[in-house]
Amino acid sequence: MGGFMRLLIRITKYIVLIFLSIILLLSLILFRGDISYVDAIDLFSEEESEFFETDVLGLDQKNHEITIHYLDYGHPEDTPIVLLHGAFSSALTFEPWKDELIQNGYRVILVDLPYHGLSTGFGDQVTSIRRSAEVVMNLLTHLNISSFYIGGNSMGGGVSWYLTGTYHGVNQVNVLGLILIDSIYPTNASGAPESGFINVLSSDLVAPLVSKMTPRFFFKQLLNGVYGSYTSPSDQVIDRYYSMLRVNGHRLSILQNSSEDISTEDQMTILEKIVSENIPVLILWGEEDTWISVETTELFKETLDLAAEDIIIYPDLGHVPMEEDPERTILDVIDFLES
Q: What are 260-315's pLDDT values in tens digits?
């Protein structure tokens, strides 16, 4: 009996050793360190890059500071158009549109939203479209811009409609038009149950390690699923997404950020104001979007009282039409702006 127990203990030790070795090997293969914020600025900032420090009032009634990176192109006197990216992305997602917009007489402002690109996050690790909208509005006030077009993709679309419905008509703010590209629709995220597994991943013990297990080939597969059948992301685009994601703190924020509790009713009220103020709206959508279904266009159509011609659906594009086919999509945007 004693010999059997010693054999069992020895086998158990071997199993544990093999398991730990596999974990160590996977860690070595998958681990990718952060890019420091200072290095990221040196590597990725452009001649037009600007930084703006501001703060927002949280639901806890405390001010939370943040540094926002933005790109300001075109003539200062031209009509501004503000463009906001989606989750895991950066302001650079709209660069393929900027030259055509500038040539047509627009000032183009591309913003890195909180926890993205070269912008920092909030110290309390809380995020929301309300906070992001306030940050963008603070930036526009800083730039003495009160009349502008605004548009956004995915999460950035949510920030765009939230800002439009909240600030239009306040302190002479005039939103000339709203462009929604595969945008999020009002939801109440706080109502979704959290799984125990997600809670473990977001814990202070596990999250700092797990958040760095993001090799480039994993991210390439993810990004391929974002695009439609028309094209695939280039190596340059993949490198841009991947590098920006690795800026210090961004990956950790994905696991550990919490969201403000903004009710669906409050969000719907904001959309209804866009209708009551007769703000022109253009919706662009990739029919092959696997992140936000093209059926969401019907929800926007009903809520915003849109006509069929206000919605353009691209049959072969996915979640980021402005990246997948900038030449085709920018023509529709210019038509909207000129009309």
A: 888 999 999 999 999 999 999 999 999 999 999 999 999 999 999 999 999 999 99
Domain with 26, as residue range(s), is 1-30
Buried b (16+ CB within 10 A) or exposed e, 85-114: bbebbbbbbbbbbbebbeebebbbbbbbbb
State how many domains the chain has. Answer: 2
The verdict on 102 and 250 lying in the same domain is yes
Tokens 């695939």 belong to 232
Are 163 and 273 found together in one domain?
Answer: yes
Residue carrying the six token digits 């659906």:
313
Q: In sequence order, which residues have a C-beta less than 8 Å from that of residue 125 and are 6 or more positions away?
A: 253, 256, 257, 258
- Do residues 281 and 305 share a domain? yes
Same domain, 10 and 85: no
- Dihedral Cα 114, 119, 125, 131, nearest 10 deg: -30
Q: What is the DSSP letter of 277?
A: T
pLDDT tens digits for 105-131? Answer: 999 999 999 999 999 999 898 999 999
Q: From CA 164, how far away is CA 160, in angstroms rounded?
A: 6
d(CA 166, CA 148): 14
**Within this chain, do residues 12 and 58 fall inside the same structural domain, yes or no?**
no
Question: Ramachandran region of residue 299, left (φ > 0), alpha (ψ -120 to 50) or beta?
Answer: alpha
Q: Are residues 261 and 134 located together in one domain of the fold?
A: yes
DSSP-derived 3-state class of residue 111: strand
| 65 within 8 A of 54, measured Cβ to Cβ | yes
For residue 65, give the H/E element and its range: strand 63-73
Q: What is the pLDDT of residues 68-79, one digit of tens each?
A: 999 999 999 999
Residues 8 and 104 in one domain: no
Per-residue pLDDT of 129-138, as tens digits, reads: 999 999 999 9
Q: What SS3 class is residue 285?
A: strand
- The span from the CA of 241 to the CA of 307, in Å, is 35
Average pLDDT of the residues in 54-63: 90
Residues 176 and 232 reside in one and the same domain: yes
